Amino acid sequence: MNNSNAQTLGKRPIVDCLDRAFARLHLELCASTKKLPAELNQSSSSMPAASVLRSAGVIEQTFGGITANLWDDPFEWTLPEYLSTTEKLLTYLAEVEATRTRAFLSFADDDCLMRLIATPSGTRPLVELLLETLTRAAAFHGQAQPLQGSESV
Q1: Is the CB of residue 141 less than 8 Å from the CB of residue 55?
Q2: Closest to 55 in 3D by CA, of 84, 81, 35, 78
Q3: Which of 1, 82, 109, 120 is the least buried, fewest Cβ under 10 Å from its Cβ?
Q4: What is the set of domains in the chain, with CATH numbers?
Q5: Which pLDDT tens digits describe the chain residue by residue (153 residues)?
Q6: C-alpha distances in angstroms, 65 versus 9, 62, 103, 119?
Q7: Helices marked H in 9-152 — which ranges?
Q8: Integer Cα distance of 143 and 55 in angstroms
């Protein structure tokens, strides 16, 4: 039996709540992506695919920063032209989710949420960074929602 898991059981309610919120957003992004045409036209930043990509990029930037100290905006180096199909976009979403999951596995308990994290914009508590990331990513995802029903295929 792994004693570290037994010792931290019940000491992560906030971490677990945030983990579930990010996991739920990931599932929603995947569901939104599956509703898109198989071939994506990324020429317009207002398109649902671009909003899904922006949402995932926000998450990737934060968790890439937390896990590997890589704070670059993925949208600058993730070529939207490469993500030209829903299959490729779903693969990208899975990679982002794997990075996020690795980070959450490293959060031992709720106390770690108060740790200060050095970001390009300054030092801040981890919980603040996570909440801002979740809010921004959800906002980008929300931008994709009304457009999907009205977009012609």
Answers
A1: yes
A2: 78
A3: 1
A4: 11-149 (1.20.120)
A5: 334 444 455 799 999 999 999 999 999 999 999 998 888 765 544 478 888 999 999 999 999 999 998 888 776 666 566 788 899 999 999 999 999 999 999 999 999 999 999 999 999 999 999 999 999 999 999 987 654 444 433
A6: 27, 5, 10, 8
A7: 13-34, 48-68, 74-77, 86-105, 126-150
A8: 10
